[in-house]
Structure formats: structure tokens, C-alpha cells
Amino acid sequence: MKKLTFNWFKWYDRKVRIICHIVFWFFFSLFYYLNYNRLAGPDTWLFTVKDWVIVFPLFYFTVPFLVNKGILGGKYYIIPIWTVFAYAWWATVNYFTCKLSLQLYPNPDERWRYYLEFVTENGIAGMFRLPNLDVFVFDFIFMVYLPIGPKLMKSLMESGYKNALLENANLSLEVKFLKSQITPHFLFNTLNNIYIMAKRFDQETPEMILKLSGLMRYILYESDSNRIALSRETAFLSDYVQLNRLKYGDAIKIDYDVENVDKPYKIAPLILVPFVENAFKHGPEVHPDNNWIQIKAWMENNVFHMEILNAAIIPEPDENGGRIFGGVGLENATKRLKYYYPEKHEITTWRENGSYHVKLKIDLK
């Protein structure tokens, strides 16, 4: 999912909201004033104020309830109840306004008189008679739903935006959690390697500790942003491979061919090493004799390519369907790829002739 770069709620602050409401009610009043002015004559202002009395309380006091509880809350029975209430409110105010108009201006335009008498001739109950509903309902929709429509759309839009913000916040927290898991996971594996070397008094142990220090410096201080230079990430990868060369010596063959990138491409930090770590873990860690690992990476048309092959013995699934041990780093890297590069990455894995293959593509443009 793409991150939201525009914050609606930050932009739509109190000042902007007041301005928008003033402009809205100005055009609302102008629209109805011009509509009534064609026929109502001296009644124009009276009926414009009448529409204010009808729409204003519905707009501010009932529509939020309709949207939050009815439409978004899934209680759809509220929608017809609200419609009946709104119609009753409109019919009542409209009826008494027409009665008042006939008393204040007894000689209106003939067409306007016909409308006033049509509304008032059967009393307020006439506003709810079925033979008249076809006319009144259309009038109700035009007078009420037209100005309330933007309020409904805005409320729905804000609700959708809130959900999008919440989803992005949850994803961001998940990525931070996944990233925090990488450090102890990586440290645990490397310290275990150093322990084995120290136990057999390997002369390369001090250099390995120094390499580890550099790697930890990168993890703790340089990879704190969402993106880092691709060249720095591949340098970290190179140091990690060198660390394993020190550990295994000539016991395994490591072919490492990662192209140096001059262009300032950016990539999510610590997103590549889990795949390389997985190759060592399920290869030399399981069977160190006559083993090999091939790592190749290059840029092509703004797409980062990485291929990893290893003569690996993949642990069989346990009785619960999961791997016997490990898989945390690789799973986290896959989740982070989906977060940072939705629809811009491709990863494929397969076994073939006693080897394990990983192909990764990331569009960095």
C-alpha cells in the first residue's frame, strides 16, 4: 500500500473549516434565493430563511449520526428512519411557512399562489397523503438532499481517509517491529559463529569481531531511515559475506559478484541480508562439507536484480507445518518488500538438483 503524503486533517484545520462553511452557506443561500426569486416575489427571503431552518439542524446535528452510525456503522435501518424524520421536519416547517406567506402576502403571483394553496389546502396531514407524495417527495429531495449531499460525501471521504491513515500507521508500526527483529536475529547468529571460532581458538576471531562491530554500527546508526544508498547496503552485504568467509575458510566455496553502483539509487535498509543469511543457514550451517554459495547482484533499467544459489539441505517441515528452526529473518524481509515495494518487486524461490535458488527483483526508479 502506498504511503499517504497529504494529511487532510492537518490541512482542514479550524480556519479552513470555517472559511469552507461560510462559502458553502453563501452559495447555498444564493442558490435558493435565485430559485425562489423567479416566482415568490416578496416571499423570496421568507422561503430562503425557511430552507435554512430546515437544512441547518439536519446538516449539523443529524447527518453525522446518519453517516457514522447508519452508513459506516452498518446499522442501515437508521437510513429510512432518518429519511422519514427529515421529511416530517421539512413538511412541518414548509407547511407553516406557506400558511404564514398567505397571511403576509395575500396577493402573490398566480403560479406561486397555486403552490401555496396546494401545500396548505388539506392541512399538515396533506403533506403525508399518498396522492401528493410524488410532488412533495421530489420537492423534499431537491430542497434537503441537494445541500446535504456534500456533507455526506465529505463525511464518507473523511472516514475513508481515517481508515487509510490507520492502515498506514499499522503498517508502519509493523515494519518498525519487523526491522527491530532483524538486529537480535542477526546478532544471535553471528555471535554464535564467533563463539564456535573462539572455542576452537581460531586466529581469525579478532578480525571477525572487528567485522561484526562494523556491521552492528551500520544496523544501529546508519539504517534508521526508510531508504539508504544502495551502494551502502551492498557494502554491508559484502562485509557480511566476508564475515562468513572468515568463519568457514576453505570449507565452502563462496562466489560473490555484486556490481558496484555509481548512481544514487536508494533501497530499504537491511532488506537484502536475510536472503543471503538464509543461504548460509540452510547450506553450510546444515552441512559444511562440499558446500557452495553463489551470490550475484546487478542493476538493469533501474531494476535491482539479485540471485542466490546454494547447495542447501532445507529442513523438512515440522508436525505443525512450519520449519524446524529459523525463517524469521526471511519472513520479515518478505513482509518488508511488500510494504516498501508494493507491485514493484518480484521474488521467486525453488529447489533444483540439490540446490536452492532465490531470485529477487526490485524496481528502484
TrEMBL record:
The chain crosses the membrane at residues 16-34, 46-67, 76-96. Coiled coil: none annotated. Residues 174-251 form the Signal transduction histidine kinase internal region domain. InterPro entries: Bact_2-comp_sensor_kinase (IPR050640), Sig_transdc_His_kin_internal (IPR010559). Keywords: Membrane, Transmembrane, Transmembrane helix. The keyword Transmembrane applies. This is Signal transduction histidine kinase internal region domain-containing protein. The lineage of its organism: Bacteria, Pseudomonadati, Bacteroidota, Sphingobacteriia, Sphingobacteriales.
